[in-house]
Amino acid sequence: MDRNSTFTVTADTMSKALPNMAMSTRAIHGDDFASSHTGIAPAMHVAVNYRYARDPTKLVPGENKNPSDPNDSFVYSRYSAPNGARFEKVLEGLLGGPVITYSTGLAAFHAIMVLLNPKRVFIGDGYHGVHAVIHLMAKLTGVQKLGLDQLGQVEPGDLIHIETPVNPTGEARNIAFFSHVARKAGAYLTVDSTFGPPPLQNPLEFGADIVLHSATKYIGGHSDMMGGVLVVRPANAIEKWWMATLYAERLVMGNSIGNLEGWLGLRSLRTLELRVTRQSQTAENLAKWIHEEINDSSSDVGRVVESIKHASLQKNGVKEAWLNKQMPRGFAPVFAIWMKTADQARQFPSKLCIFQHATSLGDVESLIEWRAMSDTTCDPRLLRISCGLEDVNDLRKDLLQGFKALL
């Protein structure tokens, strides 16, 4: 008998085959065996609590094992729930390490601070909310915040936290460099990779201990969910202890991802690679065009735009040595421009038809934000641009007519 005629795909054979498949395939089929029902699309589970086994001999304190389906073994949605667990399963296959999800990106960073409880955090520019969490923790633990220009002072147990690409400019930082500093000093390195989601970069490959993503941005991608993700480096000797501690502390901090958000996240992961690749290409295209126009003082762009920043425009002499290696499939779909005056920056979003004037980023809609609206520490001339999935030529025309309208 042909042995292939008796072969049946099982959860075990699928789990062994998936790691060798492409990202787009893993995103769509990573949870094929994560549910007992036969629906292709994930079901929406909204239950808060789950019935225990009716047979008293099968009751185990702290557990609720379902012998007929080990993927349907839940107690209380603050611990874990079907949508969130299935979301984490697919994310693990995409992000390269054990994953735990949270209600927001800031909740995920707060979890890092509680887990590591550092005495000092070395951090540069980036999302102002992360700095606010450190300030909050300082009230409780006395943690000190130092700059990345003070890395010569790093000691064992300290935390180096970098964001790359950086908010709001989309510029990249060398993860391998900061990893070397952390290892040499016995410190930890955490990387906020929200602006560099798969397939753009994997900070674990360059030495990050924990990677943070705000799932509200590219992982969600549709302006309709909030969430946070932590990924732990699997080669880390204390990985299992960290994961167990993160789960235990999430239980009491009450910041698990919601049922709806877990379901929406699953929906979004199916198209993550397609969306991010397209958005990255659009951003690089527009950034190059604006950069070239700025250098022409007679152009309408050059008459109102002072400067632009994006990873694709970084000129540091070692770009080939680390930047292309770190982000081989493209750069952040976000960049920043500085207008010549604050008033121009304030007015410009109102001149646009396609770009929506709103905060956040990573969505299918292209967004522009006069950044002073949500971060008062920013230069009032700065505009953050997040590229969506619209046609790149339409976006260019929209920006150009906006620049002309200012004149």
From TrEMBL:
Transmembrane segments: none annotated. The keyword Transport does not apply. It comes from the Eukaryota. One of its GO terms (cellular component) is cytoplasm. Its cofactor is pyridoxal 5'-phosphate. One of its GO terms (molecular function) is pyridoxal phosphate binding. The keyword Glycosyltransferase does not apply. Pfam families: Cys_Met_Meta_PP. Signal peptide: none annotated. Keywords: Pyridoxal phosphate. GO terms for biological process: transsulfuration. The modification N6-(pyridoxal phosphate)lysine is found at residue 217. InterPro entries: Cys/Met-Metab_PyrdxlP-dep_enz, Cys_met_metab_PP, PyrdxlP-dep_Trfase, PyrdxlP-dep_Trfase_major, PyrdxlP-dep_Trfase_small. Belongs to the trans-sulfuration enzymes family. This is Cystathionine beta-lyase.
